[in-house]
Amino acid sequence: MFALIGGHTYKDKINNKIEKELVRLTKKDKPIILFCPFASLDIEKTNLKFKSLIDDINADIIYLNFENVFKFEELLIKSDIFYIAGGISDDLINIFKKYGLDKILLKHIFDDKIFAGISAGAMLYTYRALGDKYMFIDNFHNYNYKMVNCLNYLNITICPHYQNEDLIIFNDILKEYNKDAFGIEDETCIIIDENKFFVIKGEGKASIYYFSKDNDYKMVPLYEGIIYEKNSSFRS
Hints:
Elements: E1 2-5, H1 17-26, E2 32-36, H2 43-53, E3 60-63, H3 72-78, E4 81-84, H4 89-98, H5 101-107, E5 114-118, H6 120-123, E6 126-131, E7 146-149, E8 154-160, H7 170-173, E9 180-184, E10 188-193, E11 196-201, E12 208-211, E13 219-222, E14 228-229
Parallel strand pairs: 1-5, 2-3, 2-4, 4-5, 6-8, 8-9
Antiparallel strand pairs: 1-10, 6-7, 9-12, 10-11, 11-14, 12-13
């Protein structure tokens, strides 16, 4: 099962409805979360943010770091949720390839656990995703968005932070890849389990939009409380 989160806003009152639902989905009294902060430029700050995010949730956290990275498979096997934080998608993917984490993850991708990610962490599981590592101001845009080559465990393209107005470019770019796609706004999560999928919404009016290649990429809003199905699995 995959959980792809568009992003968190981290307001004064942190909304962790999504994380609470992920813990509930494990069906464990006190699940173990393996947290990966490798996309972040400030790993310590990212770890503290996540600790604060799930402070009122009954779960144990194991933090993946560069000291225990060679025990990744052992830590992954004992965990119930593997949760990848956001940050710089290119750096995250390069680290996974450098340390062979991509191959270990592929070996266990059918295990009975939740593979979660937020923003860049969500992108990692997909075929391609729209990211924004190269940020600069030019004559037209504040961000130089680009499609990032990801690890292709899921045969889809996604765009996190889809509520940003300039990310409307994703609606045209996604058609080049002949894949189903999701536009995932902050405080929303798409759960994918083989050919079934459903939405978790954290707060506010945020939404997730589905673009099916079988429906000529018509933009379809998804609603919480409905389990959707397609004819084939989303897995690659």
